[in-house]
Amino acid sequence: MYTRRAGILVAALLFAVSILSMFGRDKLYSENENRYLEAQPKLSAAAVFDGKYMENTEAYLSDHFFARDAMVNIRTQLDIFFGKKEVNNIYIGKNHFLFEKPSEYSADKVGKTLDTINKITKSQSAASSYFALAPNACEILSDLMPSNAPTQNQPEQIKKVYGKLGNMKCVDILSALQKAENKERLYYRTDHHWTYEAANIAFKQIAAQMNLNTKSVEYKSYCVTNSFKGTLASSASLFSAEDSIYITVPKTDVKYVVTYVDENKKTASVFDSSNLKKKDKYEVFFGGNFSQIEIETSAKSDKTLLLFKDSYANCLAPMLIPYFKKIIIIDPRYYTGNLTQTIQKENPTDMLWLYNVNTFLNDTSIVNSLG
Amino acid sequence: MVFSSTTFLIAFLPVTLIAYYVIGVKLTKNITVKNIILLLASLVFYAWGEPLYIVLMVISILFNYTVGRAMASSRETGNSKRVKAQFIFAIVFNLGMLGFFKYIGFLFGTVNSVFGTDIQSLAFPLPVGISFYTFQILSYIIDLYRGNIEVQKNPISFALYISLFPQLIAGPIVKYKDIAKQLSFRKENADDFSRGITRFTVGLAKKLIFANTLGAVYTIIQNGGTKDLSVVGAWIGIICYTLQIYFDFSGYSDMAIGLGGMFGFRFNENFRYPYIAASVTDFWRRWHISLSTWFKEYVYIPLGGNRRKTPRVILNLMIVWMLTGLWHGAAWNFVLWGVFYGVLLILEKYVLAGALEKIPTPVRYILTMLCVMVGWVLFSSPSLAAAGEYLGVMFGGAEFINSQAIYIFSANFIVIILGAFCATPLYRKALRSFSIQTIGKLKMAAYPLLFILCMIFMISETYNPFLYFRF
């Protein structure tokens, strides 16, 4: 009798889930997954014979499954409850810190990238070239990583990279961050980026190498949001913590104009507050990543900076504004232009490479779009 | 299609159930209609995963139906030579199909490596389920030849026997004689249905909750290679695999038996707590029972079985176990795995029989599990060399423990212990102290909860954030 009732309950659940999943199939986009959901596949002979139709149907039904996001979230909680220390390749650290898995050093891949960088440095030998590699949270906050979790020796990785750079000044961000007092404030708990505080420390190291006179400029920081749930939180589907984002503004009378070259767009601010309403609030800096951004300033300087970067630079670049008449920011991951032409035309006096270790070690775009 | 997919659970199964019960059971009450519905569903089920190879299965069905009829009519006319010729033709055809699609690449590879040649290999992707349905067909043809069964004259019933979706792609291997009656008469009822769907839920849970989770642990350890592997790490890895393959395979059998029950079929049990076996012989009475009885009935006994002199029996056993190994996969490590069991079984039969009885039972459990786990290393390794390296680490060829092992153990030991508990009848013993009413109420809460958990595990596997992650 009990088995019969249990069976009927399960059958009822099966049909309920099937019917409930039919609703909400018009949903197009998943905020948590930051991607469009699979659309209903079109039936055609070709799609059936190569199996695409079946594959897409499975994805379509799974993407529109009843209570999908809630189920994924419960799964994460269950995994953690049963002792798992990582979910979807994200380490669940202490004090609500999440960590991305550190990248491995591949001599082959990094070697090619460094060859390209050295070639670019050589081609503009009149300019001063700088290289700044920022460590990630897994290194600076290694105490908060799950015990015994597989990790990488980032100081060693940075040393290897720096050792292969010719004729460039290497900026030591690592030890400056290691010496910082409140290390938990250097990285977001829910996102893979560093905070304005870390960027500020790094900026001071870069400025010292570049001999910038930073004493004349005062910086002020503002908190722009307290409800940032970053990419690591989304990846792990773990939303128990929230971060604050601070921005730093130089208090000077230097004016500037930001040009998004490929987008043919000009703005008067490096901050895009409309992104604070979106999921990825880190995009408040420059509105995200763009192939080429130019900042023209009224600074009393005759220097032009060419900055090659990943997204770690987005929150640091605004601090550089008072010292250059022009800053050209190139993100090789999106760049499709002609670098030689740009260098000839702009004749930069300074060139800076600013990357974080995890991105840099896996990067192939420097070779592909600048090489 | 696989059972643990969204398409199966929220589209295929509900639609098939409604069609079967509304049209077949309630409206027409006709066995042919019921069989047609199930046959159509089964063909869709197979074509969903194998849109091209379905042709192969249909050819197989048509061929064997025709040969079966021909053998029966030859027998009626008393032409036993002709029956024999038709029988041999059928065996050659079926084994030929299996051999061509499953073993041709292996054969070329072996020839090339033995003779140092470089012949371009004809390798095809393996048609899903071909090893299972070919063995089902052979059971029909052989039993028909032996006169143990009547010929199946109804093409729909015959096609349904071969293609019936619950056991089509991963067993159990249902012998025709066990199911012949149910093809022409079966009565569905609420109790069988409920037992079926709860059994299906248990199988689904074994697959989604245990097999996938533990499998992921072993994959990490295996992919890491033996360079950073410690003794403890290697043991954790193979324990996880041991549990994974049990939950995966027996879960699939549970789902098959459960689904069969939902449509009025009764299949024989395929697993009986194999990990509480007290000897290797005992293990094979509990593991994949439908395969070992198939080999016993259609290979071992025809070869003479136990009734021959000892050397011949040993030869027979070795033949059977090499074939069993080869059935599991076209690679040398599977053959070795079969030989490994052949040797162990011969040893138990002729050498250790008396000695084993003197050993205390708990020690026998442990010894058996050791053999089984060594077997799984052979079974799961990508090559013989990799298996050798892994075994080397397990038996002391590396540092005893390292941070990888500690990390993996601390993150997974609860699941491992829970898995080991559920793989044995211990939980049944634990329940015995409760009254029937309490157990009944527990079931009413547990099965629906288990089903919901399965949905959670299934859907969370498809969570696929696209985050410009590195950017």
Any chance you could write out the topology, listing elements then pairs?
The complex is a heterodimer of chains A (371) and B (471).
Chain A: H1 2-20, E1 29-30, E2 35-36, H2 45-49, H3 52-63, H4 68-81, E3 86-87, E4 90-92, E5 98-100, H5 107-123, E6 128-134, H6 137-140, H7 154-163, E7 169-171, H8 173-179, H9 196-210, E8 218-228, H10 231-236, E9 243-251, E10 256-260, E11 265-267, E12 292-297, E13 304-309, E14 326-330, H11 339-346, E15 350-356, H12 357-362, H13 365-370
Parallel strand pairs in A: 6-7, 6-15, 13-14, 13-15
Antiparallel strand pairs in A: 1-2, 3-4, 4-5, 8-9, 10-11, 10-12, 12-14
Chain B: H1 6-28, H2 31-49, H3 54-76, H4 80-115, H5 130-146, H6 155-163, H7 165-168, H8 176-184, H9 190-223, H10 231-262, H11 280-286, H12 289-300, H13 310-328, H14 332-351, H15 353-358, H16 361-380, H17 384-394, H18 403-422, H19 426-431, H20 436-461
Helix pairs in contact in B: 1-2, 2-6, 3-4, 3-5, 3-6, 4-5, 6-8, 9-10, 9-18, 9-20, 10-16, 10-17, 10-18, 12-13, 13-14, 14-16, 16-17
Describe this structure in words.
- The complex is a heterodimer of chains A (371) and B (471).
- In chain A, 35% of the residues lie in helices and 20% in strands.
- With 371 residues, chain A is an alpha/beta fold.
- Chain A has two domains: 1-66, no CATH class; 98-370, no CATH class.
- Chain A has an eight-stranded mixed beta sheet with strand order 7-6-15-13-14-12-10-11. A three-stranded antiparallel beta sheet of chain A has the order 3-4-5. In chain A, strands 1-2 form a two-stranded antiparallel ribbon.
- In chain A, a hairpin with a 2-residue loop joins strand 3 and strand 4.
- The longest helix of chain A has 19 residues, at 2-20.
- The termini of chain A are far apart.
- Chain B is mostly helical.
- Chain B has two domains: 6-186, no CATH class; 192-460, no CATH class.
- Chain B has 20 helices and no strands.
- In chain B, helix 3 (54-76) packs across helix 6.
- The two termini of chain B are 36 Å apart.
